[in-house]
Amino acid sequence: MEREFKGKTILVTGGTGSIGSEIVKQIILYQPKTVRIFARGEMGHYRLQRNLGNLPNVRFIVGDIRDKERLRLAMEGVDIVFHAAALKHVDICEDNPFEAVRTNILGTQNVIELARENNLEKVIAISTDKAANPESVLGVSKLMAEKLILNTYYYHGDKRTKFACVRFGNVLGSNGSVVPLFKTQIQEQGSITITDPAMTRFIMTIPQAVALVLKASSMMRGHEIFVLKMPAVNIEMLARCAIDVFSPQSRKSAHEIAINVIGSRVGDKKHEALLADHEVRHAWETQDMYILTPHETVWGQEFPTTYPDAKKVSQQSFSSEHAPQLTPAELRKLFDKDIVQYI
């Protein structure tokens, strides 16, 4: 990692969000020349600046990936981009599909075009398991963003820039995720809501997700999707664990806090998938991730498909319904170790 980032100028789009800010915090440890934090929300910059302190090699840039000229200025002299800016909520994207397109698709196109224009070393984009067999506007928009990243080989020309994606599931404790919502509901209402008690989701903590994003950046050859291996959890069990953790902060005991089922939202899946069925034959796996490799030969160009300790994927099901699920004790340990501190 030190070889990868030391002395480099690194731009993080969406750099004040849960994933983006943790990328910043972990990259700083490897002595980069400069880290540029690019995000549109002034308050996000303010909070992160107070959290980090006045570091001489960190720059805060207010801007939107939709604004190509502002992004062009931010990307001058950059070596590596971590592209974490996105609209990420299923219901909000359903209600505002044009905005999802402008941010998740056209914003990603801006990142790609300016990365080529500046002849960057590499771009690593953050994606989601909702892009596998998508049913929502969010999933479709993130799948299209993945396709744009992967199909940059059609625009390669004489540029050195390499592109890859990292795909993961629900990051517990991140801004706007379900656990902070549970905490607020427990404290303010004394009850919580879930959409479907049988629903399952792949989960990771913020530190786990970002550590593997950085690892993928050092492994990438170009045009891959790195799919982080995750356990799954049942939503009702997640809710009950949240009640155990946060009920001491309410006026009720754990057994007095009700769980109300409100039904699924438009675009919600009952179960998620890490890989789509058609992706499996092009997938490799290591101990902690799957790697989807390019399956096309473009104008005679072959893509390398060997990675350290990787082997072809042998399993056939990648649904959260059938994935290994955390036990209540394992989930509680995860809460105490890596979730509560971020909420």
Strand adjacency order, main sheet: 3-2-1-4-5-6-10-14-13-15
Number of helices: 11
Proportion of residues in helical segments: 25-40%
Order of helices and strands: HEHEHEHEHHEHEEHEEHEEHEEEEH
Query: What is the CATH homology-level superfamily of the domain at 2-169 and 205-229 and 273-317?
Result: NAD(P)-binding Rossmann-like Domain
As for the CATH topology of the domain at 2-169 and 205-229 and 273-317, it is Rossmann fold
Distance separating the two termini: 28 Å
Strand segment tally: 15
Per CATH, the class of the domain at 2-169 and 205-229 and 273-317 reads Alpha Beta
Report on the architecture of this protein.
The chain has 343 residues and is an alpha/beta fold. It has eleven helices and 15 strands. The protein has helices spanning 2-5, 18-28, 42-52, 68-75, 90-95, 97-117, 137-150, 178-188, 206-219, 235-246, 328-339, and strands spanning 9-13, 34-39, 58-62, 80-83, 122-128, 162-168, 170-172, 191-194, 200-205, 224-228, 232-234, 258-261, 283-285, 289-292, 311-312. The chain has a ten-stranded mixed β-sheet with strand order 3-2-1-4-5-6-10-14-13-15, with helices on both faces. Strands 7-9-11 form a three-stranded mixed β-sheet. A two-stranded parallel sheet has the order 8-12. Strand 13 and strand 14 form a beta hairpin. It is globular. The model has no long low-confidence stretch (mean pLDDT 92).
